[in-house]
Amino acid sequence: MTIRWTYAFADRPAARLADACAFWTAVTGTGLSAFRGDDGEFVTLLPEGADPSVKLQGVTEGDGGAHIDLCAEDVREVVALARGLGAGLVADHCDWAVLRSPAGQLFCAVPWQGETVRPPVVSGSRLDQVCLDTPPSRYDAESAFWAGLTGWEQRAGSRPEFTVLRPPAGFPVRLLLQRLDEERPASAHLDLACADIAAVRERHEKLGAVVVREGAHWTVLRDPAGGTYCLTGRDPETGGLPAGGARPVG
Protein backbone atom coordinates (compact mmCIF):
# COMPACT_ATOMS: atom_id res chain seq x y z
CA MET A 1 0.00 0.00 0.00
CA THR A 2 1.29 3.46 -0.93
CA ILE A 3 0.18 6.82 0.40
CA ARG A 4 0.26 9.19 -2.58
CA TRP A 5 -0.58 12.59 -1.02
CA THR A 6 -1.50 14.22 2.28
CA TYR A 7 -3.82 16.97 3.43
CA ALA A 8 -3.63 18.98 6.65
CA PHE A 9 -7.14 19.54 7.96
CA ALA A 10 -7.99 22.41 10.32
CA ASP A 11 -11.18 21.59 12.22
CA ARG A 12 -12.91 24.68 13.57
CA PRO A 13 -16.34 25.39 15.13
CA ALA A 14 -18.93 25.66 12.35
CA ALA A 15 -20.10 29.03 13.67
CA ARG A 16 -16.58 30.40 13.09
CA LEU A 17 -15.76 28.68 9.82
CA ALA A 18 -15.95 31.98 7.90
CA ASP A 19 -13.30 33.45 10.21
CA ALA A 20 -11.10 30.41 9.68
CA CYS A 21 -11.50 30.66 5.91
CA ALA A 22 -10.54 34.33 5.82
CA PHE A 23 -7.49 33.80 8.01
CA TRP A 24 -6.07 30.63 6.48
CA THR A 25 -6.52 31.72 2.88
CA ALA A 26 -4.57 34.89 3.72
CA VAL A 27 -1.86 32.94 5.56
CA THR A 28 -1.40 30.37 2.80
CA GLY A 29 -1.97 32.63 -0.22
CA THR A 30 -4.89 30.53 -1.46
CA GLY A 31 -8.47 30.83 -2.59
CA LEU A 32 -11.51 28.78 -1.61
CA SER A 33 -13.13 25.88 -3.41
CA ALA A 34 -16.87 25.46 -3.40
CA PHE A 35 -18.20 24.36 -0.01
CA ARG A 36 -19.36 20.75 0.15
CA GLY A 37 -20.84 18.26 2.57
CA ASP A 38 -24.38 17.89 3.84
CA ASP A 39 -24.12 21.20 5.70
CA GLY A 40 -21.44 22.89 3.61
CA GLU A 41 -18.90 22.02 6.27
CA PHE A 42 -15.91 21.19 4.05
CA VAL A 43 -13.78 23.51 1.94
CA THR A 44 -10.38 23.21 0.25
CA LEU A 45 -7.75 25.95 0.08
CA LEU A 46 -6.67 26.29 -3.54
CA PRO A 47 -3.13 27.51 -4.33
CA GLU A 48 -2.28 29.03 -7.68
CA GLY A 49 -0.23 26.79 -9.96
CA ALA A 50 -0.02 23.87 -7.51
CA ASP A 51 -2.15 21.16 -5.98
CA PRO A 52 -4.02 21.77 -2.71
CA SER A 53 -2.83 20.33 0.60
CA VAL A 54 -4.92 22.15 3.23
CA LYS A 55 -8.63 21.82 3.98
CA LEU A 56 -11.01 23.27 6.57
CA GLN A 57 -13.95 21.66 8.30
CA GLY A 58 -16.69 23.23 10.38
CA VAL A 59 -17.47 20.99 13.36
CA THR A 60 -20.62 21.14 15.45
CA GLU A 61 -19.16 19.67 18.64
CA GLY A 62 -16.11 20.78 20.62
CA ASP A 63 -13.50 23.39 19.81
CA GLY A 64 -12.01 21.56 16.85
CA GLY A 65 -8.33 20.85 16.27
CA ALA A 66 -6.56 19.24 13.36
CA HIS A 67 -6.19 15.93 11.56
CA ILE A 68 -4.48 14.44 8.53
CA ASP A 69 -6.01 12.97 5.39
CA LEU A 70 -4.05 10.13 3.79
CA CYS A 71 -4.68 9.84 0.05
CA ALA A 72 -4.26 6.52 -1.74
CA GLU A 73 -5.41 4.80 -4.91
CA ASP A 74 -7.00 2.02 -2.85
CA VAL A 75 -8.84 3.44 0.17
CA ARG A 76 -10.07 0.02 1.27
CA GLU A 77 -6.48 -1.16 1.52
CA VAL A 78 -5.62 1.79 3.79
CA VAL A 79 -8.64 1.06 5.98
CA ALA A 80 -7.77 -2.63 6.25
CA LEU A 81 -4.16 -1.91 7.15
CA ALA A 82 -5.12 0.74 9.70
CA ARG A 83 -7.61 -1.56 11.38
CA GLY A 84 -5.09 -4.38 11.40
CA LEU A 85 -2.68 -2.06 13.21
CA GLY A 86 -5.26 -1.23 15.86
CA ALA A 87 -7.25 1.71 14.48
CA GLY A 88 -11.00 1.92 14.97
CA LEU A 89 -13.46 2.66 12.17
CA VAL A 90 -15.51 5.77 13.00
CA ALA A 91 -17.46 6.24 9.75
CA ASP A 92 -17.40 4.42 6.41
CA HIS A 93 -18.50 6.52 3.44
CA CYS A 94 -17.66 3.81 0.88
CA ASP A 95 -15.13 5.82 -1.12
CA TRP A 96 -13.56 7.39 2.00
CA ALA A 97 -13.46 6.63 5.70
CA VAL A 98 -12.90 8.25 9.08
CA LEU A 99 -10.74 6.29 11.53
CA ARG A 100 -9.31 6.69 14.99
CA SER A 101 -5.74 5.71 15.87
CA PRO A 102 -5.05 3.52 18.92
CA ALA A 103 -4.32 6.64 21.00
CA GLY A 104 -7.48 8.39 19.81
CA GLN A 105 -6.33 10.58 16.91
CA LEU A 106 -8.91 10.99 14.16
CA PHE A 107 -7.73 10.75 10.56
CA CYS A 108 -9.23 10.06 7.14
CA ALA A 109 -8.43 7.70 4.29
CA VAL A 110 -9.47 9.34 1.00
CA PRO A 111 -8.99 8.72 -2.73
CA TRP A 112 -5.91 10.15 -4.42
CA GLN A 113 -6.97 12.60 -7.12
CA GLY A 114 -3.64 12.80 -8.93
CA GLU A 115 -2.11 15.56 -6.78
CA THR A 116 1.65 15.87 -7.27
CA VAL A 117 2.68 19.55 -7.09
CA ARG A 118 3.33 20.87 -3.58
CA PRO A 119 2.14 24.43 -2.81
CA PRO A 120 4.89 27.04 -2.57
CA VAL A 121 6.34 28.88 0.39
CA VAL A 122 4.20 31.98 1.08
CA SER A 123 5.67 35.05 2.78
CA GLY A 124 8.45 33.04 4.40
CA SER A 125 6.34 30.16 5.74
CA ARG A 126 4.71 26.91 4.70
CA LEU A 127 2.01 24.90 6.48
CA ASP A 128 3.71 21.52 6.26
CA GLN A 129 3.12 19.52 9.43
CA VAL A 130 0.39 17.97 11.55
CA CYS A 131 1.62 17.47 15.11
CA LEU A 132 0.00 14.63 17.04
CA ASP A 133 0.05 15.44 20.76
CA THR A 134 0.15 12.03 22.41
CA PRO A 135 -0.15 10.99 26.09
CA PRO A 136 3.08 9.42 27.39
CA SER A 137 1.55 6.00 28.05
CA ARG A 138 0.58 5.69 24.36
CA TYR A 139 3.52 7.39 22.71
CA ASP A 140 5.68 4.43 21.69
CA ALA A 141 2.75 2.39 20.41
CA GLU A 142 1.32 5.40 18.58
CA SER A 143 4.65 6.12 16.89
CA ALA A 144 4.80 2.50 15.75
CA PHE A 145 1.21 2.69 14.48
CA TRP A 146 1.80 5.73 12.27
CA ALA A 147 5.12 4.42 10.97
CA GLY A 148 3.49 1.12 10.07
CA LEU A 149 0.48 2.76 8.43
CA THR A 150 2.36 5.28 6.32
CA GLY A 151 5.59 3.39 5.66
CA TRP A 152 7.41 6.70 6.07
CA GLU A 153 10.90 7.15 7.43
CA GLN A 154 10.83 7.43 11.22
CA ARG A 155 13.42 9.70 12.78
CA ALA A 156 14.16 10.97 16.25
CA GLY A 157 13.36 14.65 16.70
CA SER A 158 15.65 17.28 18.15
CA ARG A 159 14.29 16.50 21.64
CA PRO A 160 13.42 13.16 23.26
CA GLU A 161 9.69 13.88 23.15
CA PHE A 162 9.56 14.15 19.35
CA THR A 163 9.34 11.57 16.59
CA VAL A 164 9.31 12.76 12.97
CA LEU A 165 7.64 10.73 10.22
CA ARG A 166 9.03 12.02 6.98
CA PRO A 167 7.18 11.19 3.75
CA PRO A 168 8.82 10.88 0.33
CA ALA A 169 10.19 14.02 -1.29
CA GLY A 170 7.52 16.29 -2.73
CA PHE A 171 4.81 15.49 -0.20
CA PRO A 172 3.18 18.63 1.24
CA VAL A 173 2.44 17.52 4.81
CA ARG A 174 4.38 15.32 7.22
CA LEU A 175 3.65 14.04 10.73
CA LEU A 176 5.32 14.85 14.02
CA LEU A 177 4.47 12.99 17.22
CA GLN A 178 4.94 14.90 20.44
CA ARG A 179 4.91 13.10 23.78
CA LEU A 180 2.88 15.15 26.25
CA ASP A 181 4.08 15.84 29.78
CA GLU A 182 0.89 14.46 31.31
CA GLU A 183 -1.83 11.91 30.70
CA ARG A 184 -4.60 13.69 28.83
CA PRO A 185 -6.57 12.92 25.67
CA ALA A 186 -4.71 12.90 22.37
CA SER A 187 -5.10 15.99 20.22
CA ALA A 188 -3.48 17.53 17.16
CA HIS A 189 -2.47 20.93 15.82
CA LEU A 190 -0.98 22.45 12.68
CA ASP A 191 2.64 23.62 12.37
CA LEU A 192 4.13 26.08 9.91
CA ALA A 193 7.82 26.05 9.02
CA CYS A 194 9.15 29.61 9.15
CA ALA A 195 12.33 31.22 7.88
CA ASP A 196 11.80 34.10 10.34
CA ILE A 197 9.30 33.40 13.13
CA ALA A 198 9.13 37.02 14.27
CA ALA A 199 8.24 38.29 10.81
CA VAL A 200 5.63 35.58 10.25
CA ARG A 201 4.16 36.15 13.71
CA GLU A 202 3.76 39.87 13.01
CA ARG A 203 1.94 39.11 9.77
CA HIS A 204 -0.36 36.61 11.47
CA GLU A 205 -1.17 39.03 14.27
CA LYS A 206 -2.18 41.64 11.71
CA LEU A 207 -4.54 39.04 10.27
CA GLY A 208 -6.15 38.49 13.67
CA ALA A 209 -4.09 35.77 15.37
CA VAL A 210 -3.18 36.08 19.05
CA VAL A 211 0.03 34.87 20.64
CA VAL A 212 -0.56 32.22 23.32
CA ARG A 213 3.05 31.61 24.36
CA GLU A 214 6.57 31.85 23.00
CA GLY A 215 9.64 29.66 23.16
CA ALA A 216 13.19 29.98 21.95
CA HIS A 217 12.40 28.56 18.49
CA TRP A 218 8.62 28.35 18.33
CA THR A 219 5.52 30.43 18.95
CA VAL A 220 2.03 29.17 19.74
CA LEU A 221 -0.82 31.28 18.36
CA ARG A 222 -4.62 31.18 18.32
CA ASP A 223 -6.32 31.92 15.02
CA PRO A 224 -9.47 34.07 14.74
CA ALA A 225 -11.63 30.90 14.84
CA GLY A 226 -10.14 29.87 18.20
CA GLY A 227 -7.80 27.11 17.03
CA THR A 228 -4.19 26.93 18.21
CA TYR A 229 -1.25 26.28 15.91
CA CYS A 230 2.53 26.75 15.94
CA LEU A 231 5.11 28.75 14.05
CA THR A 232 8.31 26.71 14.14
CA GLY A 233 11.94 27.49 13.34
CA ARG A 234 12.39 25.15 10.38
CA ASP A 235 13.39 25.63 6.77
CA PRO A 236 10.11 26.16 4.87
CA GLU A 237 11.60 24.65 1.73
CA THR A 238 12.82 21.38 3.26
CA GLY A 239 10.99 21.20 6.59
CA GLY A 240 14.30 20.47 8.30
CA LEU A 241 16.10 22.29 11.07
CA PRO A 242 18.32 25.22 10.18
CA ALA A 243 21.96 25.35 11.18
CA GLY A 244 22.05 25.42 14.97
CA GLY A 245 19.16 22.98 15.41
CA ALA A 246 16.03 24.95 16.23
CA ARG A 247 13.26 23.02 17.90
CA PRO A 248 10.89 21.54 15.28
CA VAL A 249 7.55 22.22 16.93
CA GLY A 250 5.83 24.39 19.49
Explain the layout of strands and helices.
Layout: E1 5-13, H1 17-28, E2 31-32, E3 42-46, E4 54-59, E5 65-72, H2 75-84, E6 88-92, E7 97-100, E8 106-111, E9 125-134, H3 139-150, E10 153-156, E11 162-166, E12 174-179, E13 187-194, H4 197-206, E14 210-214, E15 218-222, E16 228-232
Parallel strand pairs: 1-4, 5-8, 9-12, 13-16
Antiparallel strand pairs: 1-5, 2-3, 3-4, 6-7, 7-8, 9-13, 10-11, 11-12, 14-15, 15-16
Structure overview:
With 250 residues, the chain is an alpha+beta fold. The protein contains four helices and 16 strands. The radius of gyration is 17 Å and the shape is globular.
Quickly list its features.
single chain; 250 residues; alpha+beta; eight-stranded mixed sheet; 37% strand; disordered C terminus
Count of discrete alpha- or pi-helical segments spanning 4 or more residues? 4
Given as residue ranges, the uncertain stretches (5+ residues, pLDDT < 50) are 245-250
Q: Whole-number radius of gyration?
A: 17 Å
- The SSE order reads EHEEEEHEEEEHEEEEHEEE
Based on secondary structure, the structural category is: alpha+beta
Shape category = globular
How big a fraction of the residues is strand? 35-45%
Mean pLDDT: 94
Number of strands: 16
